[in-house]
């Protein structure tokens, strides 16, 4: 996978994700990126703009691109084991905040949510195996590289995951247009799992039934809902504000 967004490239290099750096133009930004790449012993390839266009299939770039190291895809068994280990870790913590995404399909929304998750120190982001955006160059760009710092796992069934979380002391809060106004309820739970749903369909019915609380953001406009990435940021902020975790 190639990425061309400067901030994403810089964060990828810092996170030791870079494999090869392609440069076709010299600028203050390429000098900065090249200097950083040398500290990580990343191979630097000077190339013509036409050749870089061909490699990127005419994808927009500013004269540089970073080829990422291939990542191993974890199978379902490995992901389940990782989740079980994380639950044991969370049991020892006084506070924990997990974000569950029920079939968020737009990679730009996913990237924006991961950027918010990183900024608010969310402990874990859980996504579904089917009908969910996957990590790609769009997610990296939209998150400004923050997606690489967020702990993420994928699960086959969110309802099973909810039950495991409840057994580990988590309270389940789900964003829903028919829920209670978030500013009118008192949140004092130490371990929170917040669920946000698909851009068009919202959260599945069974997931809502399995939740402890349905919450909404009070608004006064003519449109009845906010973009899911915007809603995620507002809900995380308000929950953390009430818990004095900001």
UniProtKB/TrEMBL annotation:
GO BP terms: methylation; RNA processing
Annotated RNA 2-O ribose methyltransferase substrate binding domain residues: 2-74
GO molecular function: RNA binding; RNA methyltransferase activity
Key words of the record: Methyltransferase, Transferase
Any matching Pfam family: SpoU_methylase
GO cellular component, one term: cytosol
Keyword Methyltransferase: yes
Protein name: RNA 2'-O ribose methyltransferase substrate binding family protein
Organism: Borrelia bissettiae (strain DSM 17990 / CIP 109136 / DN127)
């Amino acid at each position: 996978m190639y990425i061309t967004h400067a901030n994403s490239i810089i964060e990828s290099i810092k996170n030791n994700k870079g494999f090869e750096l392609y440069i076709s133009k010299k600028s203050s930004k390429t000098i900065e990126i090249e200097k950083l790449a040398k500290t990580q012993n990343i191979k630097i390839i000077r190339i013509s703009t036409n050749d870089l266009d061909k490699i990127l299939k005419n994808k927009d770039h500013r004269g540089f691109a970073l080829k990422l190291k291939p990542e191993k895809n974890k199978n379902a068994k490995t992901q389940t084991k990782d989740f079980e280990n994380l639950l044991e870790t969370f049991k020892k913590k006084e506070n924990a905040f997990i974000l569950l995404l029920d079939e968020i399909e737009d990679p730009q929304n996913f990237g924006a949510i991961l950027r918010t998750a990183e900024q608010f120190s969310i402990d874990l982001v859980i996504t579904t195996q089917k009908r969910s955006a996957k990590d790609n160059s769009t997610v990296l760009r939209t998150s400004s590289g923050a997606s690489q710092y967020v702990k993420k796992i994928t699960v086959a069934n969110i309802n099973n995951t909810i039950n495991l979380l409840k057994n580990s002391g988590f309270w389940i809060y789900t964003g829903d247009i028919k829920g209670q106004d978030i500013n009118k309820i008192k949140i004092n739970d130490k371990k929170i799992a917040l669920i946000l749903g698909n851009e068009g369909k919202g959260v599945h019915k069974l997931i809502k039934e399995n939740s402890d609380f349905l919450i909404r953001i009070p608004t006064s406009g003519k449109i009845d809902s906010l973009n899911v990435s915007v809603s995620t940021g507002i809900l995380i902020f308000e929950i953390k504000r009430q818990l004095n975790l900001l």
